[in-house]
Amino acid sequence: MSKDTFSIDITRKNIRVCDLEEKDGKIEILSLGYDDIVPNFLLDDNPLLQKEQAKKLLQLYQNLKISKKKVNVVLPDSVTYSQIIEMPKLNEQELMLAIRYQADEFIPMPIDEVYLDIEVLKEDPKNSRQLTLIIAAPKNTVTRIYNMLSLAHLVPKNLENELSVIGRLIALRFSQSNECTVLVNFGFSGTSLYLVDPLSHIIVATRSFKIGLDLIVRDLKVNLNWDEKNTYEALKNIGLTQNATVDIYKIIYPIMKEMFRELEQFIQLAKSKYNLEVNKVYLFNFDSSIANFAPTIQSNMSVPTLPLPIGSILIPNVITQSFSSEISSFVSVIAAQIK
Hints:
The chain is 35% helix and 29% strand. The chain is α/β, with parallel strands linked by helices. The radius of gyration is 20 Å and the shape is globular.
């Protein structure tokens, strides 16, 4: 954990900022906050959007009274490409060549237009095999972010995606658990599922699909003729509570049914391919934006489901108390500083 850096988590809806330090094996949050992102900042090369986003980030940074200039950046899984594959044991150069050769299997754009990052998660010397995490980020997306940080007078130190930082967080801070878990990264533009092996405590499989908070919001706005503000408030206060004044669950059930199907298939994959029986499902990211989200998943999956207990590794203070109801939404930005 570097003492000269803070972290930002960039999503399609907002940007989260965190500064922390380690004390006696736990994490103390020094600063924590978020602000809406400039629309289309992650998708458009317009320099004016970068300038506007830099201004907003700088204002948040100053409001949080952070003095550090170096920053670890987390990108959403939905704007990067990730794959966990088992490969023959190779040296770094051979590994990169092999991955570039088969990259078109999971990267839907020319290999020369992305930055590739490789991490060996686990080695099997006996069988000369290794489990490898491959992450690709579009170069134009990275350029937008670096330009924006430069305009905000900040210096990028690390750039990772959600899968990478969450994998490190679980391995380093939740390795005492012997449960087989599935992590549900419920994002704005999509959801990622991560299977955590109970023995190695590493993520051994992942799957992504295009169901996120944005799809649910758009569906409600169309069906109920609500504006965006009322839609977000209703999801936060009523959410999936059945028999409420407005039965949101009934309206968005087709979307939720598809999410249940994806999760069920992933749990089946854990059993059939990895011989792992999933004991628990943990949620994070935008899960706190929908009331009764975890209990609804639990009742449909028949697997204990709850927000990822990030609070168990944090030192309680005024900040954690202020964000107690939504602390699971800050998991990635907290994880970005944990090494």
